[in-house]
Amino acid sequence: MDWKAKWIWHEARGGAQNYYLCARKVFNVQENIKKADLHITADSRYVVWINDKRIGQGPIRSWPFAYHYDSYDLSHLLKPGENVIAVLGMHYGVGTFQYLPNPGGILAQIEMEDVDGEKHYVCTDRSWKLMHNPAYDSRTPRICCQQAWVEHYNANYDPEGWKDDPELDNSCWYEAKEIGPAGCEPWTNLVPRPIPFLTEEPMYPVSVIRSRLVKPPEQIWALNLRPNLMPHDIQANRMPLCGFLATTVKVNEKQKVTLKQQTSGVRGRLRVNGVDVQKTGDYQSRWAGGTNGTFELEPGENLLLWNVTGNYHEWSIS
């Protein structure tokens, strides 16, 4: 690969956790283009569209020193005149069992060849426009220590037209920050994807048994202890901790609450309004290792005290 593209990201959000970034570029295509290919990767993951047509997602898991990129044929998707490439970049911000934490970044390069053999390029650089995607809630819990975050998407907040509208008003978007060229730290070597893409074949139901309205989980929230108690630790390794959590919860009426602890590493007591909460094993959760604590909140302010001392792979409470 003759990489001409630069790694880009939003400067102020380079290390954010569970962060979704919209990146887009409007470009012109000549009528005499006979071939076009897209080469793309991202840290941690990407989804890419051309003129609102979803092309694919990736990359597969990689070492930073041999980071994988994907290639797509765009010959049948580009049209003479203005076209839009849109990339949704997702940054974990923490290590998992299949990902080493790095800064966020997107790298993309479109190579077009005309009938005379001349090549034309569209590359990620500071001319791209970026915007945080508010449709994705960053307060979700981790799936587990082996993986990243639960995805909570609300289409009502997805920026309208960002995947296909060349005339989109991007005055509130910001310019991309160039991190460095292909081959810069920490992605010192880029290698092609060595395995086929998932087929992603549509599967249709045989019959509809029942339809009903699903209530959105508006009353579910997650508390990530890591940024508060060990803000510099973003690895997936098991870590010991000696700490204490105190907070108040205000409600207008009597509420029943269940706190779900994803790991068995926490052994300390939980007190609500001075009363110890009995914890029970959550045998339906991951590896039957979690615990639940159910209690009632009284109208007004309620005091929660939790001894969170223990050994952790994952630090999420929901």
Counting DSSP H or I runs of 4 or more residues, the number of helices is 1
| Structure summary, number of beta strands | 24
What number is the mean pLDDT?
89
Oligomer: single chain
Side-by-side strand order of the widest sheet? 5-4-7-2-10-11
Structural class: mainly beta
| Strand percentage | 35-45%
Could you state the order of secondary-structure elements as H and E? EEEEEEEEEEEEEEHEEEEEEEEEE
Helical residue percent? Answer: under 10%
Rg: 23 Å
The major beta sheet can be summarized as: 6 strands, antiparallel
Overall form: elongated
Our measurement of the CA-to-CA distance between the termini, rounded to an integer number of angstroms, reads 45 Å
pLDDT < 50 stretches: none
Q: What does this protein structure show overall?
A:
With 318 residues, the protein is mainly β. It is built from one helix and 24 strands. The strands form seven sheets. A six-stranded antiparallel beta sheet has the order 5-4-7-2-10-11, with no helix packed on it. A five-stranded mixed beta sheet has the order 9-8-3-6-13, with no helix packed on it. Strand 8 and strand 9 form a beta hairpin. The two termini are 45 Å apart.
